[in-house]
Amino acid sequence: MKIAIVAGSNHGAATSTRLATYIQHLATQDQHEVTLIDLYKTPLPFYTPEDDGKDHQALGAFKQAMLSADAIVLATPEYHSGMSGVLKNALDHVGQDHFHNKAVLSVSSSGGAVAVSSLTQMQTTVRNLHGINSPEWISIGGDQRKSFREDALFEDIHPDVDKRVRRVVGSFLQLAEQLVGAAKL
């Protein structure tokens, strides 16, 4: 199964991006083909309806990865009770054909305890794009973020955090496989 993971931070050492990288690691271990789109390393142009972005290489690659994916993971830091501007901008560039009937996992990292507002905002956007929200999401905050610092190894992730991330990712992958199977009928 093809999975597109969008790391939607404009910070090089974002814990949300490290969490996205860990999800990529888990999905790859489970024999899935994963494309990680790091919006910090590969920024997209500002969305405008007047410009379809055909001349922007990174935007074309982003749209193709989203279109060919069987499932999608969206990861963001929580900024002012919402998803990052770079992630929202990226999502403005795509449409229902990129999300229709695909499982989508929402993931966030917050300096506070949890990042519910950004997760709710992402799930609303996914619904409007006709994606299928995974019933669970992942939010790390406070001390949980230490497991995903730039210098941390995956082996050093706190066991409780690792167990939760693995459980939610497993549930998401099961949902995605069911949706892919149903689409083939």
From TrEMBL:
Any one Gene Ontology molecular-function term assigned to this protein's record: azobenzene reductase (NADP+) activity
Keywords, comma-separated and alphabetical: Oxidoreductase
EC number: 1.7.1.6
Top EC class of this enzyme: oxidoreductase
Domain NADPH-dependent FMN reductase-like: 1-139
Homology family: Belongs to the azoreductase type 2 family.
Database matches in PANTHER family: CHROMATE REDUCTASE, NAD(P)H-DEPENDENT FMN REDUCTASE LOT6
Protein name: NADPH azoreductase
Organism: Paenibacillus allorhizoplanae
Gene: azr
